[in-house]
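Retro notes
What went well: the complex prediction finally ran end to end.
Inputs used:
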Amino acid sequence: MLLMAGMALVTFIPRWLPLFSLTRFKLPDMMVAWLDLIPAAILSALLLPELLTMGEPRHLDLFQPKLLAAIPTFFFALKIRSFGGAVIFGMLVYWLIGKIPLIMG
Amino acid sequence: MKQPLNQPFAVKDLFLPGLTAAWPICLGYIPIGLAFGVLAQKAGLGVVEIAMMSIFVFAGSSQFIAVSMLAAGANVVSIILTTFMVNLRHLLMSSSLAVFLHGARPAKLSLYAYGVTDESFVVNYSRFKQGDWSLNKALVVNHTANTTWILSTVAGGISGRFIPEHALGIDYALIAMFIGLLVFQCKGKKYIVTAAIAGVSAVIISLFIPGNAYIILASIIAATLGVVFKRQFR
């Protein structure tokens, strides 16, 4: 219960605070340009360590099924331009790779 | 109470565009929600707890992380702190959205803030940028996505005991979604360059600093360099 309440609070505040305060005054252009680049940066920062590193403490690992499945998924998303489709395609590829014991080592 | 500027309530003007924009998110949420439900069930959460977490927290990636931390026996404080760190990225997203929402009513903004996720942000932000979007339409997108998320996580929780672990690549759903979202964000050289800097620096930082701090650090470094780069080379 405490966990839910705590998680709810720390999820809501970062979403709410800027919307509430920043709609009251105008942001400088440079700030807007900076914020415009943030989504691409965040997604990439979330994704790449997930694909390229392993374990705890983390170390580089370039030969993992997650990365292997990411390559066709990337091109699928680039061509088909539907992220719902990319999710289903990615899951399928990852699952199929898991079926090949040779690649899994 | 009456606001003369507001159009009369109309399904065609509001719900149709909202639902049209929301369906790709829903299509993505169904497998991810199911996957989350299954994993949460394996971690020992009941259906009611899964539903409550999806309603009150509504943050896919931190819900996944919370469940895996619960399964690993982490304490409440460290889970909440991790959630906070992971969700700090929405601080940046909400800041970007605020640019388009000057003068909106506080109550509506608060409701909208509840639904700011990576996915709804990408969809709403690009529509706001095109200029054919309103807060009401964005709310339709958010709440359609929200409903889909809650229902699919609950469905996953119910069917979880019948689904073996790692079945059908469910543990890849979130990664695949991030790949899709990233591809849609990179609609120009400056975005690609920024994403590349962010990815490389995130990998490097993650190797040296434990925890999730690399997400925010790398994003801030990359966006800052991106702005500098743009000014230098134009």
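What we learned: Chain B touches chain A through 101 residues (CB under 8 Å).
What to try next: split runs per interface for comparison.
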